[in-house]
Backbone:
């Protein structure tokens, strides 16, 4: 039997956690806004639209949601993946090539400093994956 205190504590924990997720992700999005704008302009001017790469992510308890990253490869990179399969350095569903020819010049910089991951802050704000 589940105790009432356990349910209350769990609700309180997740409520407080969600509150901090919202506050900190909003704070980060505001503070990092100028960097976002520069990255958006660099990607847009050098490689065109779309700016973001969307993919399916499995969150808590297998809940699926759409994740976002800044696009670091040219627009048709997914179509070329099959041609490059022989160069894959990983086993299983992971696809990795050390010097992947699909990565753009801007993409190399974004990946080097993990700036391509910044849009995931938006997923935290939305509460995706919960």
Residues:
């Amino acid at each position: 039997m589940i105790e009432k205190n356990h349910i209350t504590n769990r609700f309180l924990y997740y409520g407080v956690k969600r509150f901090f997720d919202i506050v900190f992700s909003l704070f980060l999005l505001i503070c990092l806004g100028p960097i976002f704008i520069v990255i958006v302009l660099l990607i847009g001017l050098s490689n065109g639209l779309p700016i973001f790469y969307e993919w399916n992510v499995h969150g808590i308890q297998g809940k699926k949601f759409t994740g976002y990253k800044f696009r670091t490869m040219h627009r048709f990179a997914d179509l070329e993946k099959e041609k490059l399969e022989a160069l894959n350095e990983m086993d299983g569903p992971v696809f990795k090539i050390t010097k992947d020819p699909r990565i753009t010049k801007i993409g190399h910089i974004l990946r080097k400093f993990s700036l391509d991951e910044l849009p995931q802050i938006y997923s935290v704000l939305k509460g995706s994956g919960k």
In short: The radius of gyration is 19 Å. Strands lie at 52-58, 64-70. The longest strand covers residues 52-58.
